[in-house]
Write a structure and sequence with these properties.
Helix content is 56%, strand content 0%. It is built from 15 helices and no strands. It has helices at 12-25, 37-47, 60-74, 81-97, 117-127, 137-153, 192-205, 210-216, 237-267, 271-290, 299-309, 315-330, 338-352, 361-365, 380-396. Helix 2 packs antiparallel against helix 9 (237-267) and helix 3 packs across helix 6 (137-153). It is globular and about 65 Å long.
Length: 397
């Protein structure tokens, strides 16, 4: 019988977080086998606030509020969710008609789409200052409906100076207007006005982050990893330090994931994968040394950076990571280290209990041959795409 799981979600943000988890399960390279995802997410939030693995293109940060406003204006019912859904379905066709396909949310599912752009980008709208009230999508739509009813019952003074300012529905009143024919033929290309708005709004709302800094300090090239950017030498010291912490953690923790896969391959008596993981660990040792990932690392400052973004890092997670770093610092030959094997085995058991592959033959037999090997980039691949959209709009202006 195949395994399955479910959850109860109370709001849009919880739904978005769980959908991210589902996406991670669908990619063996990004599964968090050793339970360090909270640290990854904390550094992602510190560097690129609002970004999500579910994001595709930046213009959705405008599409969503435009459609929310449209749905609120079209429906006289307090339940405008159905109207919003139909508008989002129409947007799929409009983008495809405009020549877009990669990055179009729902380009295959169409009417059957379950994960709507509004739920995917709702958290980002709040983090980037486009959504100015802490409400769910449903709460926004109800408020907009109630405000429309209030406005209809309120007498308007003939004197403009005596008129009361209407309450905000929760979206930034300075949003640029939607283009003509938005739901007929649209593209992901930002106009000059839209680029300026998004650049200023995102940079202001995420001040102090690498995302905010890169909005106004474009590098010559958008590299594979954020710490490879040519302009980092000009970044504020604290920001450059956070990027360096991410680089070090990216390098050091990869060895633990390789050891985990090596142990699984050995238990399955898979000679070829064993040889490949041993070779990968030898390459990782060289990377560890050439990158100076452990040299002069202020780990107290690193943990301060991590807990500033997520104060609820579990003590067992912190202990495991500290013990792994200590072990690697004293003995990088982890492929043959009984201590490294014991540390990784104990960690998996802490997370999964009796379902841990290293102690459960049934779970081991279902192992695909590789798991959790994707290198951490802390949502840089997503942020890089968003920044690329901004830079392209400037270049076209």
């Amino acid at each position: 019988m195949p395994s399955s799981f479910g959850w109860l979600d109370a709001d849009t943000e919880q739904r978005r977080q769980m959908l991210e988890v589902v996406d991670l399960f669908s990619d063996d390279g990004t599964v968090d086998e050793l339970g360090t995802g909270a640290i990854r997410d904390a550094l992602s939030h510190a560097l690129f606030p609002g970004t999500s693995v579910l994001h595709t293109r930046l213009r959705y940060a405008l599409f969503v509020p435009w459609l929310l406003q449209d749905a609120g204006a079209r429906s006289s019912s307090p339940d405008t969710g159905a109207a919003l859904r139909q508008l989002e379905i129409r947007l799929i066709g409009s983008l495809l008609a405009g020549g877009e396909k990669p990055g179009v949310i729902g380009n295959r599912a169409r009417q059957a789409l379950k994960r709507m752009p509004s739920s995917v980008y709702w958290s980002a709208l709040g983090a980037w200052g486009i959504r100015q009230r802490d409400v769910t999508i449903e709460g926004y739509l109800r408020r907009r409906h109630d405000l429309a009813r209030l406005a209809a019952r309120t007498a308007v003074s003939d004197d403009p100076e005596t008129r009361e300012t209407p309450p905000s529905s929760g979206l930034d009143p300075h949003l640029p207007p939607p283009p003509e024919g938005l739901l007929t033929r649209a593209t992901f290309d930002l106009t000059a006005e839209e680029e300026e708005y998004l650049s200023d709004t995102i940079a202001r709302a995420t001040a102090g982050s690498l995302l905010a800094w890169l909005v106004h300090h474009p590098p010559a090239q958008l590299t594979a990893y954020a710490w490879e950017l040519s302009t980092l030498g000009d970044a504020p010291a604290q920001l450059a330090e956070t990027v360096d912490h991410a680089r070090r953690f990216h390098t050091v923790i990869h060895g633990a994931v390789l050891v985990y896969n090596l142990l699984l391959a050995r238990q399955r008596h898979m000679d070829e994968p064993v040889a490949e993981f041993e070779a990968d660990l030898a390459e990782w040792r060289s990377e560890l040394q050439s990158s100076n990932a452990l040299d002069g690392w202020d780990r107290a400052a690193w943990w301060t950076t991590v807990t500033r973004s997520n104060a609820r890092i579990r003590p067992l997670t912190r202990t495991f990571v500290d013990q792994w770093i200590d072990l690697v610092a004293s003995d990088p030959e982890v492929a043959t280290s009984a201590k490294a094997a014991g540390l990784v085995t104990t960690r998996e058991r802490q997370i999964k209990g009796g379902r841990a592959r290293l102690v459960n033959q049934s779970a081991l037999d279902s192992w695909s041959g590789a798991s959790g090997l994707g290198r951490l980039d802390f949502n840089w691949s997503v942020a890089r795409g968003h920044l690329g959209d901004l830079y392209a709009a400037r270049g076209a202006a």
